[in-house]
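Run log // design_07
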């Protein structure tokens, strides 16, 4: 049976985060992606210039339409922006007995724009945190959910995860991408165990959508039947590779996106009949192709 995952999140017109990043991640990992759009942002690599909330009834209708026809194996929740949206999403998850729910509590864009109203945070904690299999905050989001300053060490990360567990979460995966040091360390914390996920910290500014990508990769692997620990390890490997390959893309003038299809790019480069990039560019130039001198990886 085809693995299917549903993303409930906002649209990023620049394609690097939100629904667009989620669907790219699902596709890259071999999962069929469905979506319910909660908000529309006017956004690029340099910032968010406008935001329009989708009416709650339309959000609910999208979710109902997907569950009415598809065997959804996992749900990734991203940007919800306001309390009324959180309420209809919580109701829909209960109505359809959604399983393998990954809650990414998106609060602020990587460019600094606020994406969740302050009065919606408590609704998120009360209505969605207990329904999720795993909550995946970054360091600032974990601090807000735990009512503390951002963690500066792994013991502090674990302590904040346990505070979030006490507020109703079943599992908490705190992402350490906003931290410092040679390693980027994430902690998956349950009541009876802690799983440390570490990778070398990559020196790049092209990390737009990394949180969305991690949580959607986690949902994709859960939809494919992995247990939570295995899904978390594979999601960490995927997002690390996508960040490492990000500099191969030439997109925008700000914080660029990840390379979601990095594995496919490598496979194409290994094909014996594939033209080398400079050969392909030269061939296009010979034909007068308008983009011959400006190619994206």
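design_07 sequence
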């Amino acid at each position: 049976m085809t693995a299917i995952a549903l993303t409930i999140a906002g649209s990023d017109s620049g394609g690097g985060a939100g629904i667009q990043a989620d669907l790219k991640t699902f596709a890259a990992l071999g999962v069929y992606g469905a979506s319910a759009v909660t908000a529309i942002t006017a956004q690029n690599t340099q910032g968010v210039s406008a935001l329009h909330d989708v009416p709650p009834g339309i959000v609910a209708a999208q979710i109902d339409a997907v569950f009415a026809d598809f065997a959804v194996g996992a749900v990734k929740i991203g940007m919800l922006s306001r309390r009324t949206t959180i309420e209809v999403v919580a109701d829909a998850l209960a109505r359809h007995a959604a399983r393998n729910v990954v809650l990414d509590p998106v609060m602020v864009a990587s460019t600094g724009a606020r994406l969740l109203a302050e009065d919606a945070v408590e609704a998120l904690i009360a209505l969605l945190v207990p329904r999720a299999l795993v909550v995946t905050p970054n360091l600032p989001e974990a601090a807000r959910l735990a009512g503390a300053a951002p963690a500066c060490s792994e013991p502090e990360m674990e302590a904040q995860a346990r505070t979030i567990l006490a507020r109703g979460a079943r599992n908490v995966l705190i992402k350490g991408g906003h931290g410092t040091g040679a390693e980027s360390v994430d902690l998956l914390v349950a009541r009876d165990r802690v799983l440390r996920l570490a990778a070398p910290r990559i020196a790049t500014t092209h990390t737009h959508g990394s949180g969305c990508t991690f949580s959607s990769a986690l949902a994709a692997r859960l939809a494919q039947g992995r247990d939570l620990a295995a899904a978390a390890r594979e999601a960490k490997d995927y997002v690390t590779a996508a960040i490492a390959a990000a500099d191969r893309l030439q997109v925008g003038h700000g914080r660029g996106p990840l390379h979601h299809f990095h594995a496919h790019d490598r496979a194409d480069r290994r094909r014996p009949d594939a033209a080398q990039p400079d050969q392909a560019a030269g061939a296009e130039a010979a034909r007068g192709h308008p983009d011959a001198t400006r190619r994206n990886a």
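The radius of gyration is 19 Å.
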